[in-house]
Amino acid sequence: MHYETAYSPRSGAPSPALSGYRTGNSTSYFLPRTQNYMPSQQYGYGNYYSPSSPGMIYSAGSGRGGYSGFPSHSYGEDQYSRSPESSGHDGYDGNYLRPEVHRPRFIRDRRGRSPRQADIDSLKDEYEAEPSAVEGLHRALWPNSDLQFDLYYAPPDSERARDGPALDNNAMVIRIVSDDFPWSIDARTSKEDAANPVTHRDVMQSLYDFFQKELTDPEFANASESRKAKITKAWEARQVDEEDTLVKRIDWLGKRTRFDGLTKLDTSRMPPPLLPGRKPCAETWILRLRNRDE
């Protein structure tokens, strides 16, 4: 009797190549080496695996001398069908004890950002919202506040319920600049409240009123070609709600009309450009905008 190769219990493929024992031309961690296998007293064979050993293929061989009280005989061809079957451990590379690397699914957030970009943006938001950047500012005007305001629409009257000074120092004028447009906007109180400080609703109303003004020919002519295309596209989209209207400053912003907070401009390091004769304003703030679809 002799064996040809060793199978794993339910597979025709050789067992995984792990540190174990060699049987035939494959390595197995299920069975010991034949030379270290003690003769089977039960079946009377010599230094071979017994027929009950799992996964062995036997071929016809010569008889072996039996032990006392057990006759010698040959073990014939395997009469059972032993076609290979799939195995629960098939395909393992041997490193099955190594924990699986955690790879979360790649899901974009509601603003279409990847997790990495969202992390970067949140770090920027936290940096720009440090105490030095929003010191003295009404919390409703902070970046990432719960204030929902689109410059495309007039501020809701419900904002009066939580109205308050925009700045702790009760400033009478707040100048607003931005990278999204070339103008500077002075937020002031209404004529009826001229003696009172600027409120956070005054800021929203001033922004709305400014961008409802018509865009002038020189302003449009001085815009870049990409900006002109964006203005035209925004104006065409606005015609669905407002027929026969001229181009307005709100069209300059395209879809970036959502209020996203104010941060203080350090005028000592970055003085805003001013027309001749226009005085600088101590309270100059940067307006952050985001896409209305976000």
Would you summarize the structure shown here?
InterPro entries: DUF6699 (IPR046522). The protein is an alpha+beta fold and 294 residues long.
Give a verbal description of the structure.
- It is built from six helices and eight strands; from the N terminus they run ββββααββααααββ.
- By secondary structure, the protein is an alpha+beta fold.
- The chain folds into two domains: 98 residues, no CATH class; 158 residues, no CATH class.
- A hairpin with a 2-residue loop joins β2 and β3.
- The chain is globular, with a radius of gyration of 41 Å.
Essential attributes:
two-stranded antiparallel ribbon, disordered N terminus, alpha+beta, 294 residues, 4-stranded mixed beta sheet, globular, 18% helix, 6 helices, 8 strands
Would you spell out the secondary-structure blueprint of this structure?
Layout (H helix, E strand, L loop, with lengths): L1 E5 L14 E3 L2 E3 L27 E4 L55 H14 L2 H4 L39 E4 L7 E3 L12 H12 L5 H5 L3 H14 L10 H4 L5 E7 L19 E7 L4
Parallel strand pairs: 5-8
Antiparallel strand pairs: 1-4, 2-3, 5-6, 7-8
Protein name: DUF6699 domain-containing protein
Pfam family, one: DUF6699
